[in-house]
Every structure is written in structure tokens, then in C-alpha cells.
Amino acid sequence: MDILVINCGSSSLKYQLINTDTEVVLASGICDRIGINGGQFTYKPQGGEKSIQNIEMKDHEVAIKIVLEALTNPKTGIINSLSEIKAIGHRIVHGGEHFTHSAIITDEVISHIEECADLAPLHNPAHLLGIRACQALMPSTPMVAVFDTAFHQTMPPKAFIYGLPYEYYEKYKVRRYGFHGTSHSYVSKRTAEFLKIPLENSKIITCHLGNGSSICAVENGKSIDTSMGLTPLEGLVMGTRSGDIDPAVIDYIAQKENLSTKEIMNILNKKSGVLGISGLSSDFRDLLAADEQGDLKARFAREVFAYRVAKYIGSYTAALTGVDAIAFCAGVGENAKFIRGKIVSHLQFLGITLDEKANLATIGVEGIISTPDSKVRVCVIPTNEELMIARDTKTLVSKIK
Ligand code: ADP
Fold first, then answer.
1. CA atoms within 13 A on the CB side of 287
2. Where along this sequence does the record place binding of Mg(2+) (predicted)?
3. Which of 74, 184, 271, 348 matches a 20 to 30 Å C-alpha distance to 219?
């Protein structure tokens, strides 16, 4: 079954056409700068050349039209007609408490996604634009919503409640939701398969380390705790996000710098993390290059990042009362061997030993990076959120009569 996976942002749209029988990506690409001057459309068919075209895209409907035309183009396309696309899977960032699993998109599901827009104002409205555009262009194709928050809905209340007056949870649903759920779900399952351990009897810590980063404690295949919270700002030190700070910092800086809460939130989201510490870049490749040139702040930012990850792994080992495996994924986790080395060097107290050679050799591929006698196995498992979305979409649309 061919399934179109769409990840819609406010001005961008990433897509993949996946054959779910073979799990092969038939085509993929990005529509960039939707609704802004200088639009760019990238298209890469399976086995073909990647092409980049400058095309203005006034809205998401125009962008999706361009994607569908490229997929069915007689010369460079990959399918003969749109009827070959049996379903569309949409990545949705926030599903609140309502969605514990993926869902077939109906009017009711759309209104629940709208209700959660308050909690993810940058993401959910953009996803809705993508859904509506697909509805307009392919009205009879079933669509499925796959939520970043759904995997974490198995967290027990003691893990998701904040130490705040309980009425804020009752009135406004202020609680930990967690994000990157599709990635943590995929990587934890794949880790168990890869290491040949039974998922239903396992304790796995998954570390999704990218621009945005989060960690998840997965017990018997279920999320029991995760580092992001009400929003994706909590937890690890990230590319541009602060992660955990003393909440009193907000008022303190507001007074000192004469800033509004909104301005401070912008700093915490966009000007903090390793960018803020290094004063240089949010990109770990830039930080590595600068560190190698002797930039001490770049080195410090990388150390702070690794230290926070190691502390979370320690605390999630306590949450799980033990750990069988630790898995690294996403841009930094899959590629940044020195960062992984630094993290693992903090974990020797757990009987974990790094296989230096394997760590250096495992870049962007699956592999074990701990020594055979390490008490806990540490591995790299490249994430694949699109495949997970395609799988969920297939499962749900197969149930439609
Ligand atoms: P997101 O999906 O959150 O935007 P990614 O998972 O693509 O992010 O991760 C992006 C991060 O991964 C960037 O900071 C980038 O520098 C880092 N990264 C990618 N490749 C490498 C590499 N070879 N070495 C070190 N860091 C890398």
C-alpha cells in the first residue's frame, strides 16, 4: 500500500511516499518557504536524482498540489495516478490527553486537534492547514493523525503531574505530555528487536538528540517518563532551547533586562541551549569544528549538553529501577560520536563500558557501541518517524470497511 506521509510546519511541508509492503521510500522532499517569498521545492524519487526548484507557494494547498504533480509527473514521477495513494498520514505534534493512539481523521478529530492548538500554537494550526489542503485535493482518500504525544500517554500520574496547585491540571490540563513520541516508540521497539530482547520484559532508555532533544524511559514497551513537558521546552539543554531551569530565572531576568514574559519565553526557546552558551551556533557540527579550533565556549556547550543527558539517564535508571539498554538516535545521537562518548563516560557507575572503536565506526547506522562485557548495552538506532507514521496509517485504514 502506498502511503503519503506529511509533516506540515507553518512555512514548510516535508513529505515521503512510502510503500508499506516493502517499507521502501518511493519519493521524498520538502516544500520550503510556503507563504513567503523565495519558495523552494525539493523532490527525490527512489533511485533518481534530487531536484530543487524555485517555486512560489502561496499556501499549503498549492504546496501539496506541487507534491502531487511531482509524484505523478510522466517523466520523473513515481506513480501513474493519485488513486495509487491509498492513504495520507499526518504528523501532529500535540494530541493533549485525548489521543492515546493514532486516529482516522474525522471532523471530530479535527476539532480535538484545534482544541490542543493552545498547547502547541506553532505546530497544531500548521498541521490543520496540511489536513485541510489534502482534504480539498484528495477528498476521498482516508487520512490518519499520528501524535507526538500519544506514546507518552501511558505515563503514570506521578510522572506527569507538576508540583503546582492541582487545580491547574483540572482547569487547564497543565501537566507533562512529552514529545518525539513517534521516535521514542520506533526506537524502543527497534532496540529490542536489534538486541534480541523481549520488548514486553525490558527497560530501555531512548535518547532522541537532535535540534530538539528528549529522553524517554520505556518499560515493557511503554513510556513511563520523558524529559519534555507541557511544551517541548523542558528537559535537556537543546540547540536553542534552555531545557530545565529554575522558574525563578524568568522573573529575575525580566526585572534585570526589563523584558516581558513573552520576550523571555522567546529567549528560552530560540536563543538559549548550546547556542546561548556558546554564543556561536545551535548546530553541533559547528560546535565540533569550533571546539577543534580551540573555542572554549563551544567545548563548554558540548560538555553541558552531554552532562545533562547523562544526568537524565541516571534518573531514568532510577525511574525504571534498572536499565537493559540505552539507545541513541536523531542527528546528534546517530552521528556525534564524541558527544556519545562523553555521555557514556559518566555512566561507568552502572557498569557500562564504551567500545571506543565501535563508537567511532557507528555513524548514522544501527550498531552496538558498548563492549561485550558492559552490564548495559548501548546502541545507535537511527530513528524513522515517517515509517512509523506510515505503519500506523496502514493499520488504521486497513480497518475501514
Ligand atoms: P531535528 O529533526 O530536531 O531538526 P536532527 O535530528 O536532524 O534535528 O539533528 C540535527 C542536529 O544533528 C544538528 O545539531 C546537527 O549539527 C547534528 N548533526 C548532524 N550530523 C552530525 C554529525 N555528523 N556530527 C555531529 N552532529 C551532527
1. 29
2. 7, 385
3. 348
Q: List, for residues 19-66, the tens digit of each pLDDT value.
A: 999 999 999 999 999 998 899 999 999 999 999 999 999 999 999 999
- For the chain, the domains span 2-147, 197-385
Class assignment of domain 197-385? alpha beta
> In terms of CATH, what superfamily is 2-147?
ATPase, nucleotide binding domain (3.30.420.40)
Q: Is 14 among the annotated ligand-binding positions?
A: yes
> How many A from CA of 379 to the centre of ligand 1?
17
User: Using a 6 Å CB cutoff, which residues line ligand 1?
Assistant: 210-212, 239, 283-285, 288, 330-332, 335-336
- Please tell me whether the overall predicted TM-score, pTM, comes out greater than 0.90 for this model: yes
User: Any binding-site annotation on 99?
Assistant: no
Summarised one tens digit per residue, pLDDT across range 373-397 is 999 999 999 999 999 999 999 999 9
Looking from the CA of residue 211, the nearest atom of ligand 1 is 3
| Residue showing cell 480497518 | 399
Separation of CA 281 and ligand 1 centre (Å):
12
Tally of CA atoms within 13 A in the half-sphere of 389 that contains its CB: 31
Residues designated as active site: 148
The protein residue whose alpha carbon is closest to atom 12 in ligand 1 is 331
Domains 2-147 and 197-385 share a fold: yes
Give whole-number Cα distances, 208 to 145, 150, 155, 259, 375, in Å: 21, 16, 18, 32, 22
